[in-house]
Amino acid sequence: MLSKELGLGVLLALVIFLAYRGYDVTPLLVMAIFGGALYYVAESRGLFKGIEPLDMKNGGQETTFDDIGGQGAAIKELQEALDFIKEREKIQKLGIRPLKGILLTGPPGTGKTLMARAAASYTDAAFLAVSGSEFIEMYAGIGAQRVRKLFRSAREKARRLGKSHAIIFIDEIDVLGGRRGQYSGHMEYDQTLNQLLVEMDGIRADDEIRLLVIGATNRIDMLDPALLRPGRFDRVVRVDLPDREGRLQILKIHTRNKPLADDVNLEDVARETFGFSGAQLESVTNEAAIYAFREGAEAIGARHFKEAIEKVIMGERLDRRPAEEELERIAIHETGHALVSELLRPGSVTALTITPRGSALGYMRQAPADDPYLYTREYIENQIAIMVAGAVAEEVILGGRSTGAANDFNQAVVAARKLIFSGLSSLGVVDEESLPDGPLHREISRIIKTQEERVVYFITEYREKIIQVSEKLLEKERLSGDDFRQLVFADGRDHLQWACM
After folding, report:
1. Strand 363-366 and strand 349-353: pairing?
2. From the centroid of its chain, how far is CA 390?
3. 189, 206, 222, 498: least buried by Cβ within 10 Å?
């Protein structure tokens, strides 16, 4: 900044001196204005932008693999690849070619960036990080120039720090490494990707500074095949959503600095957060602490975690409250969902509420018995039955349905399509692309109609119980799964028999 100001001062003094001596300074002023305008445009477009290193430290502390829970397999595979650049002499004896690139792929919020930071700490390497969007500009050649500068900067930083290896982390690499030829009339994407391929090909095992490129993406299907071949990104490490044990590890990590009440059981919280990513679990612990702070509590209780889970799933409570007639319909609708869920899979209901949150006026939350990897025909059909139970309860008890079931039926259609294209329907094995819309529509309608008829029986048998639960729900606005089961099955009636009918 000082050099710019000094240069402008000298230029201005020169112009004043020449004008004072009687020279015509108009051409100089025109050239200065034109040059300044070009400089301003270039700087605003990032033509002089450098590659800034990402801070490896998180909250003042280095991120290590011990700070990442629920990704044991991914961490083990990543550490093995990192050992190739740490143990140079050993791999040379065995004739192992060091890996040039590692691709981390998986859903958002699963810890890909954290793993890259931990990789830098694990190897004690110079670390540079950028986002794929930083390379793409409307000006041809700028992206390729930035790629060259990125690799050059990584080597220079390693020499400056006295290190023998460096890690380059490219987040959202699908922006930079998308399939070539998909952007007609815009060759900047292809040129940038070509330069990245050239730079990765230039990495040698005997280089003074050994480089490792780590990429992260949610959309591996969008990447150019040339980027994924051996010799570039040699390994693809899947960073999946954590299972129940993984969620428990993550919760323990994020509650290390939080006081927990005696009624908090993190295993129960892990069970109720099926499908949550690591980022969502961190949000749950943070929101639970916020609820405790609002109440002035000294420790975070189980009720705070329940509120936090519902907030992460559905959003904050709304001030708007539906009319009493609508609330009655919502209570019956949600009770219908809960009843059928409990009949088909006892103990599955964890919460029942009619408190408006986000875009939902009510909600029935299920907890899976386990984290399933495969789904049977019976399981999917039962899920469809639970989805349509709210609308059926409205029709049986109130005499008609409402638009509140629109999302339920959208989900039911998705589940029915999964049933069909998995070869589990009456159509047998079918091809999604060649199946005409007519037969597909009829089969979806038949599947959903069959489950509706099945649910009508359940709702009719438990009509009075549904009304009783909905009245209690209108009174309290929220019932736990245990409260719901106590109201419905207080007479000791064996409810398992109904699931078989």
Report:
1. antiparallel
2. 29
3. 206
Looking at the fold, whether 225 and 113 belong to one and the same domain comes out as yes
For residue 108, give both structure tokens: 């958002």
- To the query of whether residue 334 is one of the catalytic residues in this protein, the response is yes
pLDDT in tens, 195-206: 888 888 888 767
> Per mean pLDDT, which range of 17-21, 36-40, 129-133, 207-211 is the poorest?
36-40
Q: What CATH number corresponds to the domain at position 354?
A: 1.20.58.760
Kindly state whether residue 464 falls inside one of the protein's structural domains.
yes
Which residues, at least 6 apart from 205, have a Cβ–Cβ distance to it below 8 Å?
92, 97, 98
* Helices and strands counted in the chain (H then E): 20, 10
Q: Do residues 248 and 266 touch, judged by C-beta distance below 8 A?
A: yes
Q: Domain of 292? A: 248-314
- The answer to whether position 220 is within a domain reads yes
CA distance 487 to 77: 50
Is the separation of the CB atoms in 78 and 71 below 8 Å?
no
Q: Is residue 51 in a domain?
A: no
Listed residues 314, 346, 365: the one ending a domain: 314
Which residue type, as a one-letter code, is found at position 95?
G
Indicate which residue of 137, 188, 334, 342 is catalytic. Answer: 334
pTM to 2 decimal places:
0.70
Q: Is the dihedral of CA 250, 251, 252, 254 positive or negative?
A: positive
